[in-house]
UniProtKB/TrEMBL annotation:
It comes from the Bacteria. This is Pantothenate synthetase. GO terms for biological process: pantothenate biosynthetic process. Catalyzes the condensation of pantoate with beta-alanine in an ATP-dependent reaction via a pantoyl-adenylate intermediate. ATP binds at residues 32-39, 149-152, 178, 186-189. (R)-pantoate binds at residues 63, 155. PANTHER family: CYTIDYLATE KINASE/PANTOATE-BETA-ALANINE LIGASE (PTHR21299), PANTOATE--BETA-ALANINE LIGASE (PTHR21299:SF1). It is an enzyme of class 6 (ligase). The reaction proceeds by a bi uni uni bi ping pong mechanism.
């Protein structure tokens, strides 16, 4: 079956509701396009679990702050659609900005404390924009499941909180981060990383690996694990770290003292003009190669 393409929200909703009325399950993967293997892994997860999969491609202006890269964010619609088709996606929604935000649209989701630390401290309106567009997309495509990447860990926390708080009838699925062979987390923004910046970008992964190695070797002191990450950043002074923290898994609360439960190491840094984020759930098993 060829991929069905929608630009109109009502048509997308009619398609989704008709499929569900016929007893089929639908999985939704929201994206901003410039698709890579990380996005396609979400589509595959949806295919594995659902009868039908839909993806959305929309560079959402409300999640960009002033001076951020909204205007130059990579856009490649025709290639994205070909990739979705080859991944077996059934429908794609690629609306215009005026479709999602017609003149006069004013309501925004206020996400609470989970959206005001870490990324939210640096990008104060970001998660309000994310939660607003995710809710709008879920209203237009009332799917059974929605798929998000662990790569944007704080986003998963905010989306889970929003769907719970607002009684959105969807099950949120979180899929593992897909990486380049050398460990760099795939991101649409990696196209900005030319030359030396591409090498420097690996510092985020190396910092997380340092925490993972120490954790696998038995280290459970949060301050020492954090210092292991900071030491990696200190060895690459061209890279500007913004945070390197340990979080209780499932939320954005920082872990202090001796770690007892599942813990996520999360980092953000500027590599030249490009901000990158990455994270890793610390595993007591073997350190990764
Ligand atoms: P974006 O297009 O950057 O808004 O991302 C759309 C979805 O893909 C989000 O749920 C992201 O977390 C997810 N995603 C982005 N990069 C990766 C990756 N490297 N691995 C897995 N999921 C990803």
């Amino acid at each position: 079956m060829p991929l069905v393409r929608f630009t109109d929200g009502d048509a997308l909703r009619a398609w989704t509701l008709a499929r569900r009325a016929a007893g089929q399950t639908v999985g939704l993967t929201p994206t901003m396009g410039a698709l890579h293997a990380g996005h396609l892994s979400l589509v595959r997860a949806a295919r594995a679990e659902c009868d039908l999969t839909a993806a959305t491609i929309f560079v959402n202006p409300t999640q960009f702050g002033p001076g951020e890269d909204l205007d130059r964010y990579p856009r490649n619609l025709e290639q994205d659609i070909a990739l979705l088709e080859s991944a077996g996606c059934d429908a794609v929604f690629c609306p215009a900005v005026e479709t999602m935000y017609p003149p006069g649209a004013a309501t925004r989701i206020e996400v609470g404390p989970a959206g005001s630390v870490l990324e939210g401290a640096i990008r104060p309106t970001h998660f309000s924009g994310v939660a607003t567009i995710v809710l709008k997309l879920l209203n237009l495509a009332p799917a059974n499941y929605a798929y998000f990447g662990q790569k944007d860990y704080q986003q998963t926390v905010v989306v889970r909180q929003m769907t719970r708080d607002l009684n959105v009838p969807i099950e949120v699925r979180i899929c593992p981060t897909v990486r380049e062979p050398d460990g760099l987390a795939m991101s649409s923004r990696n196209v900005y990383l030319q030359g030396e910046y591409r090498r420097q970008a690996l510092t985020l992964h190396h910092a997380l690996q340092a925490a993972q190695h120490a954790y696998a070797a038995g280290e459970r002191n949060a301050a020492r694990l954090r210092r292991a990450m900071e030491a990696v950043f200190a060895g690459e002074p061209q890279v500007e770290p913004q945070y390197a923290v340990l979080l209780h898994d499932g939320g954005v609360e920082e872990a202090h003292g001796e770690l007892t439960g599942p813990t996520v190491a999360a980092v953000a840094a500027k590599v030249g003009p490009t901000r990158l984020i990455d994270n890793q759930l610390l595993s007591p098993g073997e350190p990764p190669a």
